Amino acid sequence: MNEELRRIWQQFYDWVVGNGPRPENEVVPEEPPPDLPFAQKPKDKYSRFHEATLKERYNQWLEIHGLHLFSVLYSGLSVLTCLVIVSLLLATVAELPPFGDERNPAHNEVIRRYVEHGGHETGAQNIVAGLILDYRAFDTFGESAVLFTAAVSVLMLLGASRRNSLKDDPSPHSDGEGWDFLNRGPPALRHHVFRQDDAILRGVATLSIPVIIMMGCVVVINGHLSPGGGFSGGAILSTALILAANAYGFERVHSFFNERTFIVSSSTALMIYALSKGYSFFTGANHIHSIIPKGTVGDILSGGLILPLNICVGLIVAGTLYGFYALFSEGDM
Amino acid sequence: MIRVIIGGLLMLAGLCVLGIATVGIFRFSTMLNRIHVAAKCDTMGALLVLSGLMVMSGLTVFSLKLALVIVFMWLCNPAASHLVARAEVRTNPELGKICDFIDLTEGEKTSDNS
User: Fold this and answer.
1) What gap in Å lies between CA B22 and CA B27, rounded to an integer?
2) Buried b (16+ CB within 10 A) or exposed e, A108-132
3) With the C-alpha atoms ordered A320, A237, A128, A106, is the resulting torsion angle positive or negative?
4) Among A26, A102, A150, A185, which residue's Cβ finds the most Cβ atoms within 10 Å?
5) Please, what sign has the CA dihedral across residues A64, A68, A73, A78?
């Protein structure tokens, strides 16, 4: 009885799958000619009564030739787009007035004012520093605030995912809710898969980090005397931090520059910037005598507010750039 | 005059090294060969070109700055090449098919065990 059932089931199974004995009057469809592009042999499972519909043929054709067609179209269109843009830009350049012509629209009284009176009005030897940190200081303030805001928002976004993971697995370092905003969780959560001690990198970093930090400080402090300033000096300082983090590990940098340090220093710098420059603009607009001395042009203590503002901008930029690196590689600062 | 000639010869030699290195970067197939050539380009080629400039400018502050640039490049460029090569060795699992390399960390592990 049992074997009978099994035999019937085997027959039924063969009939369903299509392995069974074929009836003698079965109509076998002709094999399509193999050299046509869309006439790929259909799969064995459906071979008996299968005829490819138009859509399936189209899909098969697309599978074979679609990538090629796409690449040809893509490269052709990109070459065309590049040619159009290049020709448009070249035509625009050809229409520009000649370089250095005195009737150019860029040569107006503003630039003459900067060049002729910039020295004794701002006290800075470097006209560009006087421009961006005295005449247009609010613009630079906005740029620093944008940098700081970007770093803080990345910090909050990456911290939110960390907080969620901490909520699932509560650790003694988080206070149940997971809202450890300034005091981050255990360092065991950080994974160092590929990082190992590298003697060569350590030696080079030991030699070069003091030089890099000195260079950054010189560029920041001499911002009103020579080319440079807060942005470039801050970038140099942040490379020193990144090199230290790569050579000695993030924990070593974390011990003196962590999230709290970054937030405190950056917001203090922004606050000092806003208050001092607000005072300077207030007195200047109301024709009140300002107590900030200009100093003699060319000294290191000259240029009025430019030196402290450069230091503020340098602090913000250094912290932000290092913060981006640490956040995106470690997820933590 | 003699200074210009010596400096020019040095710079020409540097340009030769740079040209050979540029050909090598495109000519070699694997990553480690290429990093080998690119490191030469930045050490030997830059050394020759910059020392040619130093000879041309004589004993001035400018040549002192150039010497510092040479020191910086000789310090940092080998380290950078080393790091790139290390990243390649760490992350390429099929490196053993191209070349033989000795896994130093494994030796340390066995020595630790014994």
Assistant:
1) 9
2) eeeeeebeeebbeebbbbbbebbbb
3) negative
4) A185
5) positive
Question: A74: which 2 tokens?
Answer: 């893509």
A204 in contact with B, Cβ within 8 Å:
yes
Distance from CA of A200 to the nearest CA of B (A): 7
A212 → chain B, closest CA residue: B72
DSSP string, A23-80: PTT--PPPPPPTTSTT-PPPPGGGTTT----HHHHHHHHHHHHHHHHHHHHHHHHHHH
Structure tokens at A272: 């000092």
pLDDT (tens digit per residue) in A288-331: 887 877 777 777 787 778 888 999 999 999 999 999 998 888 77
User: How far apart are the C-alpha atoms of A169 and A163, rounded to whole Å?
Assistant: 10
Distance (Å, whole) CA B94 – CA B89:
9
Q: Say if the ipTM goes beyond 0.85.
A: no
Which H or E run contains B94?
A: none
- Domains of chain A, residue spans: 33-92, 127-330
pTM, full prediction: 0.65
